[in-house]
Amino acid sequence: MSRVLLIGATGFVGRHVRARACAAGVEVVAAARSPEPGGLRLDLAAGPAEVAEAILDTAPDAIVNCAGVTHGTPAELVSGNVVAVANLVTALTSAICPPRLVHLGSAAEYGDVEAGVPVAETAPPRPLGLYGVTKLAGTELVRTLAETPVDAVVLRVFNPVGPGAPRSTLAGRLAAELRRTAGTDEDVRVGPLTACRDLVDVRDVADAVLAAARAPGPVPAVLNVGSGRATPLRDLAASLVRVTGSRQRVLEAPAAGLERSSGVAWQQADIRAIGRVLGWKPATDLTTSLRDLWADTACTG
Prior knowledge:
Layout: E1 3-7, H1 12-23, E2 27-32, E3 40-41, H2 48-58, E4 62-65, H3 74-94, E5 100-106, H4 130-143, E6 152-157, E7 159-161, H5 170-180, E8 188-190, E9 196-197, E10 199-201, H6 202-214, E11 222-225, E12 231-232, H7 233-244, E13 250-252, H8 272-278, H9 286-300
Parallel strand pairs: 1-2, 1-4, 2-3, 4-5, 5-6, 6-11, 7-10, 8-13
Antiparallel strand pairs: 9-12
Helix pairs in contact: 1-6, 2-3, 3-4, 5-7, 5-9, 7-9
């Protein structure tokens, strides 16, 4: 693989995929709805013709789709996670020599699972919220490519953490609040921290994306990307407070019911399949992820 069309290049995961790909000597065509200078303007939801033109013009060896909508109205979620993917799938099926597609799915597609049992790709998806429902619809659209000459894989990413984590994530929001209130007596308030999540460093996610894009042969339709560990969210908060050296208290507030994973008490990825198929495994411990996230807030906050 010498050239990749990276859609969603300005997002949290997309930025790290771009950095890892460039470091590996891969030419990256960075595309986004609001691209950075020199990037390609591409809105998947605008229609398949625009996507097909971008594929034809850039002639990539692989397409990585990191684009998506994590929150918003039902119409916005459907547009960003379903219509956009449908347009990408349509464009690929019309391409003469379609490149491999690596599409980022979400652990929210699984929904609530049995506590203590790592969730494998064979588990029936039962998303609880509209975000998970729309992400699952996107995954199913990509899976239809199995009946065409297009080679495609969905990477179901669990909870990415690390530098650049947005405020829409617990770690990103907590780090930003600790940075904002540093040196004060102001308490930091977050939602309930009773759940356990599989937290995986965003740079490890980027490495998994590159491994999937570069794999020499067909790969399974869906592969989990996670740490393979379930971390209590209270431990995440305590670890971040330790990393920052903050003396502030982190107080839990009642649930607002709006979180994308609301209602999911426990998740841990079974990552044996991606290890067998791609030789990938997570390499970054949570403390390092949080330390680098904290350092990043000094630059962006």
